[in-house]
């Protein structure tokens, strides 16, 4: 995908999501339905719940208009400024719901296999689908702001390789530490034990598995199977992994982690919160801002490494 195609995808994603953010509150307003990001009783997408319904509609419309502007405004300086402002709008609207949905997916799949298919209905909720769409659009906008055409040559390639290795290793620390704490919570290890029933322990185990899987996928940024599909994968085995596939995925997760970190930091500032009640279990989540930044930098340097020329082999 060329730089022009990357910007085209970013404009398409931002424009589509921006139009949805304009249309949804207008429809809700017309039929008297609650705003999906301020609806009572929802577990995901409650970022505007502190506002009365009319104000929530207006805020979403304003954010949608700004995001549409980011999709259509051209020019280097003003375009970058509008995209940065649109990222601020996404930061306001995004919450931890999408990241939680990804984390709980292993538990939900096991629940479905064991006959509790109804639990998967949560993944079809409008707020959650909005969160996922906004995360992808925000990641694509972030890409156009921070990504620049990497200089060519072997030196640039080796520099990108070194940076990818460094930031990838840092980005793996937070999810692995988080996974370890969830395993310890499930095992009721002193210092990590919190009141949990069997369902809670199953969900905690699922979170640990998901976090470990995320760390393994991050590792792929510096492994051969992060450039060519492994042999055990049908149809694509041995083919080159599209450069932008892991980059978009990593940037999307980076955005989700940062929005979740926003909530974690706000909870940590409240005396008597869950973090203070069980600090060993929750303190690792304070690493999430670092995780988000490291993952984004690892992805961008992976892209630079894949799009520059390696050092020729010695003869």
From TrEMBL:
<feature type="transmembrane region" description="Helical">
    <location>
        <begin position="120"/>
        <end position="146"/>
    </location>
</feature>
<keyword id="KW-1133">Transmembrane helix</keyword>
<feature type="transmembrane region" description="Helical">
    <location>
        <begin position="281"/>
        <end position="302"/>
    </location>
</feature>
<feature type="transmembrane region" description="Helical">
    <location>
        <begin position="243"/>
        <end position="261"/>
    </location>
</feature>
<feature type="transmembrane region" description="Helical">
    <location>
        <begin position="12"/>
        <end position="34"/>
    </location>
</feature>
<feature type="transmembrane region" description="Helical">
    <location>
        <begin position="205"/>
        <end position="222"/>
    </location>
</feature>
<protein>
    <submittedName>
        <fullName>Uncharacterized protein</fullName>
    </submittedName>
</protein>
<feature type="transmembrane region" description="Helical">
    <location>
        <begin position="167"/>
        <end position="185"/>
    </location>
</feature>
<feature type="transmembrane region" description="Helical">
    <location>
        <begin position="85"/>
        <end position="108"/>
    </location>
</feature>
<keyword id="KW-0472">Membrane</keyword>
<keyword id="KW-0812">Transmembrane</keyword>
<feature type="transmembrane region" description="Helical">
    <location>
        <begin position="54"/>
        <end position="73"/>
    </location>
</feature>
């Amino acid at each position: 995908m060329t730089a022009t195609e990357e910007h085209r995808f970013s404009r398409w994603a931002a424009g589509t999501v921006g139009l949805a953010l304009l249309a949804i509150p207008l429809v809700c307003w017309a039929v008297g339905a609650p705003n999906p990001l301020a609806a009572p009783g929802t577990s995901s997408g409650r970022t505007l719940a502190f506002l009365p319904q009319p104000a929530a509609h207006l805020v979403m419309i304003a954010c949608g208009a700004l995001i549409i502007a980011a999709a259509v405004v051209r020019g280097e300086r003003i375009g970058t400024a509008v995209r940065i402002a649109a990222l601020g709008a996404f930061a306001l609207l995004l919450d931890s719901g999408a990241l939680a949905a990804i984390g709980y997916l292993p538990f939900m799949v096991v629940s479905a296999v064991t006959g509790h298919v109804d639990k998967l209905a949560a993944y079809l909720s409008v707020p959650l689908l909005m969160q996922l769409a906004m995360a992808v659009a925000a990641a694509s906008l972030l890409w156009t702001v921070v990504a620049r055409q990497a200089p060519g040559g072997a030196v640039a390639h080796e520099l990108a390789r070194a940076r990818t290795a460094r930031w990838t290793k840092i980005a793996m620390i937070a999810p692995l530490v988080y996974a370890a704490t969830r395993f310890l919570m499930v095992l009721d290890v002193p210092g990590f034990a919190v009141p949990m029933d069997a369902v809670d322990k199953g969900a905690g185990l699922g979170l640990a598995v998901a976090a470990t899987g995320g760390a393994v996928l991050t590792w792929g940024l510096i492994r051969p199977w992060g450039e060519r599909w492994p042999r055990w994968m049908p149809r694509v085995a041995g083919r080159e992994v599209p450069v932008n596939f892991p980059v978009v995925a990593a940037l999307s997760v980076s955005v989700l982690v940062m929005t979740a970190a926003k909530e974690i930091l706000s909870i940590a500032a409240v005396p008597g919160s869950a973090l203070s009640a069980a600090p060993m279990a929750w303190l690792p989540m304070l690493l999430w801002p670092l995780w988000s930044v490291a993952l984004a930098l690892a992805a961008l340097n992976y892209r630079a490494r894949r799009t520059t020329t390696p050092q020729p082999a010695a003869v």
